[in-house]
Specification:
The protein is an alpha/beta fold. The protein folds into 3 domains: about 5-220, Spore Coat Polysaccharide Biosynthesis Protein SpsA, Chain A (Alpha-Beta Complex), CATH 3.90.550; about 225-295; about 300-515, Spore Coat Polysaccharide Biosynthesis Protein SpsA, Chain A (Alpha-Beta Complex). Helices cover about 40% and strands about 20% of the residues. Helix 6 runs parallel beside helix 8, helix 8 runs parallel beside helix 10 and helix 21 runs antiparallel to helix 22. It is elongated and about 95 Å long. The termini are far apart.
């Protein structure tokens, strides 16, 4: 190859923006590149600007189309002419950060990868402001695109760099004559080259302006046929390469997204409905996907009780919808709060069918809300999220991978703590022994059954395991997690622990645990829950086996509030009764 980078720049009627674009290229701190500018028959002054820049710097190379062929054809013309080892796409109304090529080159050399993803700033052309909220993937480091997550990543070509070899050896081109050309190229490339590397840094400036392809799409000015044709082309690619059975779920989810986005364009709704019907029939839907429905499609059921959390629920929901593993349902149980929480959820439900709302007729508490959701769950796996907390972007993907790898009935994972009052994050230091646990299997036994935190939100279960053993959360009390966690450990004692914080637990003054430190009526529930567990062990003839673990648990309960003398003193009558009931 004659140079390190080939920067592909399609040019069509962008005289207002082209100079800024080219200046950003020539200002690069990494200088070994060629900028291949394809003039797609511009009718303004764009070609003259290109020629002026070429006279100043021979790294600017010009290809002229004899007729207007569109963005994809321009990119393909540049790709055929490219002499660089790496390919970077740059739209001619955008611009690069000065260290863009430098940073990308360093990661290519260090990571030995075929592709690099990076972030972008968004620039509003109308207001002339650059948004601090960048276009980002939320991922750092090495990453693998799978059938479960490939469809929900951004397909823009301009926030990715590729080795030229990885494109040309697979004979990949952008589809010509279609808008949304990035999608087809993206699916083909990352199916054939699934391992990539993410840089968590904005290296690109994306201009939002009137008349752009993306803006026209939002206003319904493009041919809807193109959107569906791209999905058809991707499906054909998978069939021809004997990959369709594996990537069927990706096509189904991509199709669902495209149909919903088209129907949201009001002036095209009737046409969108007609095209949706046609493509569903062509894809033999739902018969073609019946096997996915039967197996549960490796779907997660996320249990989300909701009660007076309007301050936090938006962030919680966004963390779920932004998961890299996107095959899930969110079972939101309205437990009759009196704030704006459900209105927020209902807005999300209108645009995402994965959100399902279940309403209680009266306030029943956290345990009952979880049980209601569990009864309605359709997923293969159960995950609990408290509505004032949030999960990290790869949470479901990493849990799913470990379920596939280990065949365990339950996967546990660690959490970070967000201290709401101080606005800071830390490790969960109030369970130090939990954080010392290395990745791998642990076996719960008569000594350690109750030694780990019983929170529901740091554990995932196979749904058929929970249903088979009729395990439920305690209702009408707080500390509802204890009985559920112990029973699950008894029936399936081999637990796989992921040594990574996948969950963020918010510690705030309004939470159930925090209020229990101020209210005796809540604090005493620990003794009710523990007595129920005692009686269960007795009834199932398991008490002698787990006596040591249970009495350690009982001792912890008695001393739980000792550091809060006022509450602990008021608990004396309950503690005395509890000691008598469990024969301590």
């Amino acid at each position: 190859m004659g140079t390190t980078f080939s920067i592909i720049i399609p040019v069509y009627n962008v005289e207002r923006y082209l100079k800024e674009c080219l200046d950003s290229v020539l200002a690069q701190t990494f200088c070994d590149f060629e900028a291949i500018c394809v003039n797609d028959c511009s009718t303004d002054n764009s070609l003259e600007i290109l020629k002026t820049y070429q006279q100043k710097d021979k790294r600017i190379k010009i290809i002229e189309h004899s007729e207007n062929k569109g963005l994809s054809a321009a990119r393909n013309s540049a790709l055929d002419a490219a002499q660089g080892k790496y390919i970077v796409c740059l739209d001619s109304d955008d611009w690069l950060e000065t260290d863009c090529l430098d940073v990308i080159y360093t990661e290519f050399i260090t990571q030995k990868t075929n592709s690099i993803w990076f972030c972008a700033y968004k620039f509003n052309d109308k207001t002339k402001t650059r948004h601090n909220k960048i276009i980002t993937t939320g991922i750092k480091g090495k990453y693998t695109l799978t059938p479960q997550n490939i469809y929900n990543k951004t397909d823009f070509s301009w926030i990715k760099a590729y080795t030229t070899k990885s494109i040309k050896e697979n004979n990949l081109y952008w589809p010509e004559g279609l808008t949304f050309e990035d999608g087809e190229f993206y699916f083909k490339y990352f199916t054939l080259n699934p391992v990539t590397y993410f840089i968590d840094k904005p290296l690109y400036n994306y201009r939002v302006r009137e008349g752009s392809i993306v803006n026209n799409a939002k206003e319904g000015k493009l041919q809807l046929e193109d959107i569906f044709q791209v999905v058809k082309n991707i499906r054909t690619f998978y069939i021809e390469n004997n990959l369709y059975s594996r990537y069927k779920i990706a096509i189904l989810n991509l199709l669902n997204i495209r149909i919903k986005s088209c129907r949201n364009i009001l002036n095209n709704q009737n046409k969108a409905l007609l095209l949706s019907k046609e493509i569903l029939e062509e894809f033999n839907f739902p018969d073609d996907f019946e096997d996915l429905k039967i197996t549960g499609n490796n779907m997660f059921s996320i249990i989300l009780p909701v009660y007076n959390v309007e301050e936090y629920i938006d962030g919680c929901i966004k963390s779920i919808l932004n998961q890299s593993y996107a095959n899930f349902e969110v079972l939101c149980v309205d437990d009759c709060g009196n704030d704006n929480s459900m209105n927020i959820i209902e807005k999300y439900a209108k645009t995402d069918s994965r959100i399902k709302i279940i309403k209680h007729d009266k306030n029943k508490g956290l345990g009952a809300a979880r049980n209601t959701a569990l009864s309605a769950a359709q997923g293969e796996y159960i995950v609990c999220v408290d509505s004032d907390d949030w999960i990290k972007e790869d949470c479901l993907q990493k849990i799913y991978d470990k379920f596939q790898e280990t065949k365990s009935n339950s996967i546990w994972y660690k959490a970070d703590v967000y201290w709401d009052k101080q606005k800071k994050m830390s490790e969960m230091t109030f369970f130090p022994e939990w954080y010392k646990q290395p990745e791998g299997f642990i076996t719960l036994n008569e000594d350690n059954l109750t030694s780990f935190p019983m929170y529901a939100w740091n554990k995932a279960y196979k749904r058929n395991f929970i249903m088979k053993h009729n395990i439920r959360w305690s209702e009408g009390v707080i500390f509802e997690d204890v009985e559920f966690g112990v029973k699950a450990g008894i029936f399936s004692p081999d637990i796989y622990v992921i040594d990574e914080a996948l969950y963020v637990y918010r510690r705030n003054e309004k939470s159930i645990i925090s209020t229990s430190t101020r209210e005796v009526e809540k604090a005493k529930d620990i003794f009710i829950v523990s007595k129920n567990l005692y009686e269960y062990l007795k009834e199932e003839n398991l008490f002698e086996k787990y006596k040591s673990a249970f009495y350690r648990h009982a001792n912890d309960n008695i001393n739980m509030y000792r550091h809060i003398p006022n509450i602990h003193k008021q608990l004396y009558p309950y503690i005395k009764k509890y000691i008598e009931e469990i024969n301590l």
